[in-house]
């Protein structure tokens, strides 16, 4: 897996490449000309010793802050994904596959942070390097190899690693390497430990506010707008341990009661239980969000999106990896497993308790979908019938024609 950081991605993007990418999307020529006029007509001026210089035009790049720039950049960078798909179809690249029926994975693109996956062979490395070089040549992009990194499977030999590193002049990913704020390598035993930097973010925010000079109302607004929002992004992908949540809650609780003191070792006097303060205002609390409930709620939402869309790419990948011959409702825990899938499994019992299928015509599986509230105990109460007995497979097979029961 190769993580590529593009240097000055917005500033280097060629206008001709944007035009060709828009044309491939099937947009009308007049509309493309209007967009080209918008990105090519602005003029710029620099301040030299406090005095503005003469105005000049640029010849490439899109402006930071322009409402169109993010969309144009995504359309342009998507051409790399198109090129990778074409190379995959032509068998120039293989990508990676996590299971027998798993679709090949070749890339994960987000803005100027690119993850490209492939087999650890010299042929694949050379093909990928040639493709990336061609893309950068026609788009104007330049990889920042100093901020890029590569990750190999544990089964790859050192000889192969050294050969591929000659093709891509990057460092090996370590445990501190992150992508989009998330650590890419998690320890097997205590995965939450990789997110200790979230606690550091909490602590680093405290010196910026003279909380002991603020009223409790002001502290409450800071907790709602700042401290309760910091971990939400990370909580959407991993179920933190109760010990980790307790550390975050302790920081917020001390911030609320005492603010920032010169001697932080002094114990604070808490006049009410924290669970009472976290209650809604209608229940006599202050409406401070419970981090544990937020974490579980976000993962339940992710599990629900995952369960209701079995045709999604993520569902197909995880199904081929972890529950190939079952449905998500009957999936069992296997090892090893990713942090995300492990978190989803822990949320499945709650999801089952609050989910059911609309029967309509009854064309749903009797054994693999939660079609009634007691579905989880169906298998336990099954009475083994004599040999040759045909068990019903669909819910509609239980219906008696002409009767309501």
Automatic annotation (TrEMBL):
**What is a single Pfam family found in this protein's UniProt entry?**
RVT_1
Q: What PROSITE patterns does this protein map onto? A: RT_POL
**Domain Reverse transcriptase residues, every copy:** 1-184
Which SUPFAM superfamilies does the UniProt record give?
DNA/RNA polymerases
Signal peptide from the UniProt entry: none
Q: Which PANTHER family match?
A: OS12G0587133 PROTEIN, REVERSE TRANSCRIPTASE ZINC-BINDING DOMAIN-CONTAINING PROTEIN-RELATED-RELATED
UniProt-recorded name of the protein: Reverse transcriptase domain-containing protein
Q: What is the lineage of its organism?
A: Eukaryota, Viridiplantae, Streptophyta, Embryophyta, Tracheophyta
């Amino acid at each position: 897996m190769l993580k590529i950081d593009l240097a000055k991605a917005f500033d280097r993007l060629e206008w001709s490449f944007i035009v060709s990418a828009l044309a491939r999307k099937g947009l009308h020529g007049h509309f493309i000309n209007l967009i080209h006029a918008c990105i090519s007509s602005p003029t710029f001026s620099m301040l030299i010793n406090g005095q503005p210089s003469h105005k000049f035009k640029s010849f490439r790049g899109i402006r930071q802050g322009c409402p169109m720039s993010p969309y144009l950049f995504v359309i342009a960078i998507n051409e790399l994904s198109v090129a990778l798909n074409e190379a995959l179809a032509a068998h120039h690249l293989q990508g990676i596959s996590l299971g027998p029926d798993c679709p090949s994975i070749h890339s994960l693109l987000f803005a100027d942070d690119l993850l490209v996956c492939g087999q650890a062979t010299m042929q694949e490395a050379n093909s990928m390097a040639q493709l990336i070089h061609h893309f950068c040549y026609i788009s104007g992009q330049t990889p920042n190899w100093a901020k890029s990194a590569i990750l190999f499977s544990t089964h790859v030999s050192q000889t192969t690693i050294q050969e591929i590193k000659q093709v891509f002049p990057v460092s090996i990913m370590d445990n501190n390497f992150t992508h989009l704020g998330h650590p890419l390598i998690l320890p097997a035993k205590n995965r939450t430990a990789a997110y200790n930097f979230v606690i550091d973010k909490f602590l680093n925010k405290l010196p910026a506010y003279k909380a002991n000079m603020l009223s409790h109302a002001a502290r409450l607004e800071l907790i709602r707008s700042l401290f309760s929002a910091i971990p939400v992004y990370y909580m959407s992908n991993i179920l933190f341990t109760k010990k980790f949540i307790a550390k975050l809650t302790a920081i917020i609780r001390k911030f609320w009661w005492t603010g920032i003191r010169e001697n932080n070792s002094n114990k604070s006097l808490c006049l009410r239980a924290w669970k009472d303060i976290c209650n809604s205002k209608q229940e006599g609390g202050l409406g401070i969000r419970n981090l544990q409930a937020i974490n579980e709620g976000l993962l339940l939402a992710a599990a629900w999106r995952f369960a209701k869309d079995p045709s999604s790419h993520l569902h197909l990948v995880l199904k081929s990896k972890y529950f190939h011959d079952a449905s998500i409702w009957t999936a069992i825990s296997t090892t090893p497993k990713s942090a995300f899938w492990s978190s989803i499994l822990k949320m499945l019992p709650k999801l089952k308790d609050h989910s059911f299928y609309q029967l309509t015509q009854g064309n749903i599986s009797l054994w693999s979908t939660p079609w009634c509230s007691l579905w989880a105990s169906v298998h336990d109460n099954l009475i083994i019938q004599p040999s040759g007995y045909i068990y019903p497979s669909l819910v509609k097979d239980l219906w008696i024609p002409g009767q309501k029961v």
